[in-house]
Amino acid sequence: MKRRTFIQNSAIIGTGLSFSRKYAFGKFQQDARITILPEEQIGKIAPEIYGHFSEHIGGVIYDGIWVGKDSKIPNINGFRKELVDHMLRIQPGNLRWPGGCFADSYNWKDGIGLMSERPRRANFWINTPFMKKAPDGPSKYEPNHFGTDEFLQFCELINTKPYLAANARTLPAQDFIDWVEYCNSPPGRTTYGDLRVANGREAPYNVAYWGVGNESWGCGGDMIPEDYAEAFRRFTSFVPEFDVDLKLVAVGPSDSWNNRDIQWTRRLFTRLAEKSNSWTYIPDRIAGYSLHFYCGTTGNSSIDYTDEDYYEHLWRADQMEKIIMEHWNVLGAYDFDRKIKLYVDEWGAWHKQMTEVHSTHLFGQTSTMRDAFIAALTLDTFNRHADKVAVANIAQLVNNLQSLFLAHEDRFVVTPNYHVFEMYKEHQNGQAVRTEFSAPTTDSERGLWGLQGSASMKGKQIFLTVVNPDISRHRETEVVIPGAKIKTAVARVFSSSNIRDYNNLDNPNIIPAPVTTNLNIQKGKLVHEFKSASVTSLLIEVE
Ligand code: AHR
Hints:
Layout: E1 6-9, H1 16-24, E2 32-44, E3 51-53, E4 75-76, E5 79-80, H2 81-90, E6 94-97, E7 121-122, H3 129-133, E8 141-142, H4 148-157, E9 161-166, H5 173-184, H6 191-198, E10 209-212, H7 225-236, E11 247-250, E12 254-255, H8 262-273, H9 282-285, E13 288-294, H10 307-317, H11 320-331, E14 341-348, H12 369-384, E15 389-394, E16 405-408, E17 411-414, H13 416-424, E18 431-440, E19 452-458, E20 461-468, E21 475-480, E22 486-494, E23 515-518, E24 526-530, E25 534-542
Parallel strand pairs: 2-21, 3-6, 3-15, 6-9, 9-10, 10-11, 11-13, 12-13, 13-14, 14-15
Antiparallel strand pairs: 1-18, 2-18, 4-5, 7-8, 16-17, 18-19, 19-20, 20-25, 21-24, 22-23, 22-25
Helix pairs in contact: 5-6, 7-8, 8-11, 10-12, 12-13
This protein binds alpha-L-arabinofuranose.
Residues 55, 99-101, 214-215, 346, 395-396, 401 line the site of alpha-L-arabinofuranose.
């Protein structure tokens, strides 16, 4: 066993260490401290950070979101009702569609108009060995029943912002412009706007977020950064605005926990910057720079892993912070005013394939409490970088990688990831403030911080979220807010009896919902025991 060390997680490490050592060696009652610094504001937490991703892959769209209007499964205009109800509870910040890799094979014109007349196409994922064995159906042969109008209506139903990914591999820029016209043109102005009206939708959808391709270095066209720079310029030289503040997104790299593709970022921006007079000034064109980070897996499967596998996986997920910083630092050399924000529009765990709830679902995973901790520590990371990260999308919403939901036919279940998003929604639109976490590291080969999290403020309310990853140690912790007096605090604690616990369609209620308690504040002092292997939120009122 590695010797335990004591670490403080914050942007400024110096000052806390002597204090921390005193705590570590037992002179004080508590063994950890969290210091929230309201004066040190980071930035407003964009609701879009709490975003989701829905691709035409396996069981995400068909069976997951769309069951059809004539289905016996409870639905609202064809959308699975239980899913709609749960999405409303978590206040999703945005929903990305139609991919993923699928996006660069998709012709949006296939998915509009009378459903019975829409063409059928081979789905992008049909060649994977898993899908080859799958029975025929919509996950292999795309029926186009769920198209642009269905997606945008779904977004309205769940009260979220749409984020569309345009095809930059098999379609020309004109089709992208046509798509923008279809979605955003007022009635009576353009042919595509009128086509939308003829298809039953009068008011423009006003879609703001548009990705120009997806993973263009791979499934999105096998491009080198210089090729993509050329494609991006061509796609974005003119895009009709229709009074919508368009947010155009350039494709960035895909990073793993041990390999970060800084070269893609450097080469892409170097090439984009070669042409930068005032009209084509690159930071004015790119609202978002997309990053993808899948933290992979450890252990034998999504449900079969040792304690050490668990710590190792959390540590790998925690590399998100480095990924953000490294690409952000490179961007700084090209975007002096810091107009371009990071859009982490695919992130999550990617376990070995084997726990799909149905043979038509691809990359379906069973999410255990380990995944919930990964979700929580990642959302905390985004909050701590609220000045840099403006959009993020966990992959993917239902029946896929790190999903919030599993569904098949009339059965539906929430995963532990759902509870984390439900808890963390309070951060949306809050002002992120710097927070120091001092606690002994975990008892594990891979020394992981003992406590980590994020805090945000709305007036006199501070919302703190904290992950205690240690399987066996509770952390008695004093929460300190210099310059403020704590009046009240309400805790919500999310944990389960075993880190390997999960819900599935046969056992939908293994994972308990977070438990709420009013905390006792003595003379403005807040001491809380952060339970082992838990995610906790504290809603603190100060004066
Ligand atoms: O989320 C599954 C796939 O992972 C996406 O289609 C692709 O963008 C990424 O490689």
